[in-house]
Q: What sequence folds into this?
């Protein structure tokens, strides 16, 4: 399976309700640029899974407008920040897809990358995924240590 991982765009601070935080103007712009990058490189997915938080759903909607996806995205509670990489791996193992996009958060995204690439979630420091960062990982099996990093794109490089 090919996994496309995306950390939501930069969001405005809201100390009273983290789940309802919205994308900042700069965050929207970064995701717009990423969408254009994905379109230019003809990146395709079989499905998109998004955390239930507002900023991830805004991120997915922005990509959908640019890529004109032929399917709706799926809101999934397994993509919230506090989920463990092991739980996410178990969830992904149940999917029948060749290529999916996960729109999620820190610390999950970097911990997940540490788990599947280095067989160690604590190696998350090797994978600094700032807001709007995108990565592609090929999985030989859906298990820790079975990933191969193919690409990483950070907003400042677009």
A:
């Amino acid at each position: 399976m090919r996994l496309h991982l995306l950390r939501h765009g930069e969001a405005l601070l809201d100390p009273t309700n983290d789940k309802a935080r919205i994308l900042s103007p700069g965050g929207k712009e970064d995701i717009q640029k990423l969408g254009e990058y994905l379109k230019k490189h003809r990146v395709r997915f079989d499905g998109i899974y998004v955390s239930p938080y507002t900023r991830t759903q805004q991120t997915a909607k922005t990509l959908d407008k640019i890529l004109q996806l032929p399917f709706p995205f799926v809101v999934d509670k397994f993509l919230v920040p506090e989920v463990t990489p092991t739980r996410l791996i178990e969830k992904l193992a149940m999917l029948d897809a060749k290529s999916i996009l996960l729109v999620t958060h820190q610390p999950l995204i970097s911990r997940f990358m540490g788990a599947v690439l280095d067989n160690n979630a604590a190696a998350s420091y090797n994978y600094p995924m700032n807001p709007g960062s995108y990565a592609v990982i090929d999985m030989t099996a859906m298990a820790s240590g079975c990933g191969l990093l193919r690409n990483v794109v950070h907003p400042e490089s677009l």
Notes: The chain has a mean pLDDT of 96. The longest strand covers residues 147-153. The chain has one domain: 2-11+19-157.
